Structures are given as C-alpha cells and as structure tokens.
Amino acid sequence: MYPFVRMIKEFVVHRNAPQLALTDTHVSRHVCWPWDIDLWLELNNGRSLTLYDLGRIPLAGRVGLIRTLRRERWSLTMAGVSVRWRHRVSPFERVEMHSRCVGWDHRFVYLEQSMWKRDGRCASQALYRSAVTDRNGIVDPQRVIEALGHDQPSPPLPGWVGAWIEADATRPWPPAKAAA
Predict the structure, then answer these.
(1) Contact predicate 159/127, CB 8 Å
(2) N or C: where does the chain have the smaller number of CB atoms within 10 Å of the terminal CB?
(3) CA 8, chain centre distance (Å)
C-alpha cells in the first residue's frame, strides 16, 4: 500500500521550510520500517522507489511546482528511472535522502535522488525522467519553468545523464514479446 501517512508527515515536517530554487537540493530523513523490507531483511528495491516519492513530492512543493500544477490543471508523471543499489538498508535504519532537479530538455525534467546511510555511504541513487502533462500530452518543460515564474535555460545536464538519455533512446518501444 502507498505510504500516504508518511507522505502527509513529510508535508507537515517541511511545511515551513524555505522555498528552493529550481536546482536546489531537498534533504529529508526516513526510517526503513518492517513493512519496507523483503525476504532478505533489507529495504525492498520496489519499496525504495516508493520511498523516493517521499523526497520528490515535497521537493516539488518547495520549488512551487505543486501550486503551479493545480493552477494550470497539469499533472506530473514519471517516464523512466535508472537506479543503482550499493549498500543494504536494514530494518529500523535511518537514511538521509537528497532530491534535486539536475535539468531539463525539450521534453522531460531530470531528477536525481540518493539515500545516504549514517556512516556516510550512499545506499542507492536514482535518476528519474519526469514529465508534466495536460489533456493534450506532455507540456514543454520550458513552459513549465516559465509558469513557475522563471525565465532560465536548463543548466547543462551532467555527462552521465546525457549518456543515459542517449542510451535509452536506442531501446526499442514497445519491447518485443518473448515467445511463450
């Protein structure tokens, strides 16, 4: 089940946090609860993606995106993700999550998120491709930036982000079905 109570907690905790610039980092703290673990007694890989919502959505609030989405009657969706898991997160372990926008292109906004253990090791990192949509499809990210009250181009995307975009563009869609 989606962690609605935890999401509400994040909004309450960060309700008075200062507004962030478009590419500033939102920092939040989370606990790996027993219902977040898998058979190997560690944070489940699918659940970690859900927990990343707990950083990404408040980030959207702090940059003014949620207010803009409501005003414009737009929606927010995820269009892709690449994740690296490197260190286990155990039950009751606390992690610090860092969430930020790294930039945008003609179609998508790219977000980087990471979970950090108390000993300073990065447990995981996710790169998301997100899109703002309306009833006609994807809204041009520059139009979204302008609706947020900014008139700036995207910062240069890091090389590794550009490489992911290029590699993903070669991936066939729809994928071929495997023979049964």
Answers:
(1) no
(2) C
(3) 17
4-168: CATH class: alpha beta
Which residue in 52, 59, 57, 119 sits closest to 83, CA to CA? 52
How would DSSP label each residue in 27-86?
EEEEE--GGGB-TTSSB-HHHHHHHHHHHHHHHHHHTTHHHHHHHHT-EEEEEEEEEEE-
Looking at residue 179, its pLDDT comes to: 85
Look up tokens 């959207």; give the residue: 60
The pLDDT of residue 147 is 97
CA-based R_g, the chain, Å:
17
- Cα of first residue to Cα of last residue in the chain, in angstroms, is 31
**Closest by alpha carbon to 27, among 87, 130, 116, 107?**
116
| Domain ranges, ordered by start, for the chain | 4-168
Judge contact between 94 and 29, C-beta under 8 A.
yes
For the record, the structure tokens of 154 come out as 């995207």
**Which portions of the chain are predicted below pLDDT 70?**
none
Enumerate residues 6+ apart whose C-beta is below 8 A from 39. Answer: none
Query: Is residue 174 reached through a cis peptide bond, with omega within 30 degrees of 0 on the bond before it?
Result: yes
